[in-house]
From TrEMBL:
It is a multi-pass membrane protein. This is Major facilitator superfamily (MFS) profile domain-containing protein. Residues 14-438 form the Major facilitator superfamily (MFS) profile domain. It holds the Pfam family MFS_1. GO terms for cellular component: plasma membrane. It is found in: Cell membrane.
Length: 439
């Protein structure tokens, strides 16, 4: 079989399996909000404790991103995804068995550790098995399919938990994770330079421009389809860690992408992962199923917005303009909700607001395209891991802040100021971004 044919087959099979696994990541990430009522009845907790329980997943996810970036770059995606799915299954079983707050905390932390490996692995597959020019389109498709997990974690999970019990749902999810672990062993392949490799000398040497970004010439050259086998002796672990972290963190073009994930995407994870449904029920005295139905419109926005990512970039002529449009319109939306409508717009408007919010939020995926393009290819796992970590730091801080506001102010609409602040920070980060080199 020709190397290009192998690259095509292995690339698509690896990407497809990991994207299926990514659906479970979104499900676990957003599931606590849908079973919050049942949880608090069986395990006593206040708003701050509930926010911290949700954040346990984010703490683990954020903590693991740099180790995952190293492992993806050093040992490949197959082994770590197999192990990660086993840990996710264990965490899901423990969550179903939990009757104490400590056990619930531990289970959510394990789920965060296990699921943390998947998205960085997908980006590594995209960066190594496919041309850079396809990165944004593939990232959009990744989010499109992954967000079906968001959809399942809202109204369907609410229905299933009420019908069969929330504990049984998490036992079923553990079984799905085990099946996916076996699927990873069968169909996921690590990128091998002798199969797909274009010339990597420049990237391996960490060739960068004056701002720390990869030169357009080097990037373009590194994505050509010619078969080249270049033996590069891997650096010792500590040397690699120091060099990769230094290269990515000292690159000023990395940081706008980090801030976009911290604020822009972190706000969506905060709302969908925990506070969207409780805030709707408290503000408008809605029943839980109706509130979940309102919040579900954000996932419809995700699903529609994901395949439109490439269209945004083409119409607006670049990644930076597309992100400016997404973050800017999102800021205007929250200015209307918080300032003009006083935090309590008509309840009937919220499905449209959540849909628009989800549609705009999907432009965040372009930050991964940018951070991959402006850093050396052999550090792509580290670059995307650091960027991805920021989302969960942001959502953890926002979740806890909203919990404190609800416990001490007694005013649910005041929580929207946290989301508005994050929207403003996301827009400022997009203003600071430099356009990725042409590929």
């Amino acid at each position: 079989m020709q190397p290009y044919v192998k690259s095509f087959r292995y690339g698509w099979s690896s990407w497809s399996i990991l994207v299926i696994a990514f659906i479970t990541v979104f499900f676990h990430r957003l599931s606590v909000g849908s079973v919050a009522d049942e949880l608090t009845r069986e395990i006593p907790m206040n708003s701050v404790t509930l926010g911290n329980l949700t954040a346990m997943n984010y703490y683990a996810y954020a903590l693991m991103q740099i180790p995952v970036g190293i492992l993806v770059d050093r040992i490949g995606v197959r082994k770590i995804n197999f192990c990660g799915l086993l840990v996710t299954a264990a965490g899901s079983i423990l969550f179903g068995l939990a009757h104490t707050l400590e056990a619930a905390y531990l289970s959510r932390f394990l789920v965060g550790i296990g699921s943390s490996v998947i998205i960085v692995s997908i980006f590594k597959i995209q960066a190594t098995w496919f041309p850079l020019s396809r990165f944004s389109a593939l990232s959009g498709l990744t989010s499109f399919f992954g967000n079906f997990g968001s959809l399942l974690a809202l109204y369907p999970l609410t229905f299933l938990s009420l019908t069969f019990g929330w504990r049984n749902v998490f036992y079923w999810m553990a079984g799905i994770s085990l099946l996916l672990a076996l699927l990873v062993l069968w169909g996921v392949r690590d990128a091998r330079t002798e199969i797909y490799s274009p010339p990597r000398e420049t990237a391996a040497a960490g060739s960068t421009g004056p701002t720390g970004s990869v030169s357009p010439l080097s990037r373009k050259h590194s994505q050509t389809p010619e078969h080249t086998s270049t033996a590069v002796k891997p650096l010792p672990f500590l040397a690699y860690l120091k060099e990769s972290l230094s290269c990515v963190l000292k690159n000023p073009r990395t940081w706008p992408n980090v801030l976009i994930l911290f604020a822009f995407t972190g706000s969506s994870t905060t709302l969908l992962g925990l506070w969207g449904i409780p805030l709707m029920t408290q503000l408008y005295s809605l029943d839980k199923a109706t509130a979940a139905g309102y919040v579900t419109f954000a996932t419809f926005g995700f699903i529609l917005g994901a395949p439109l990512i490439s269209l945004w970039v083409r119409l607006l002529k670049g990644i930076r303009p597309a992100l400016l449009a997404g973050t800017g319109l999102n800021l205007l939306l929250w200015i209307y909700i918080v300032i003009i409508a006083g935090g309590r717009p008509a309840a009937e408007l919220w499905p449209a607001f959540f849909f628009i919010f989800g549609l705009l939020i999907m432009t965040h995926i372009l930050a991964f395209s940018n951070v991959t393009a402006v850093n050396p290819l052999n550090y792509s796992g580290m670059a995307t891991a650091i960027t991805n970590m920021a989302e969960f730091i942001g959502s953890s801080l926002a979740s806890l802040t909203i919990g404190l506001i609800l416990d001490f102010s007694g005013n649910p609409s005041a929580a929207w100021w946290v989301i508005l602040s994050m929207a403003a920070l996301g827009f400022m980060a997009a203003l600071l971004m430099k356009e990725q080199p042409a590929s």
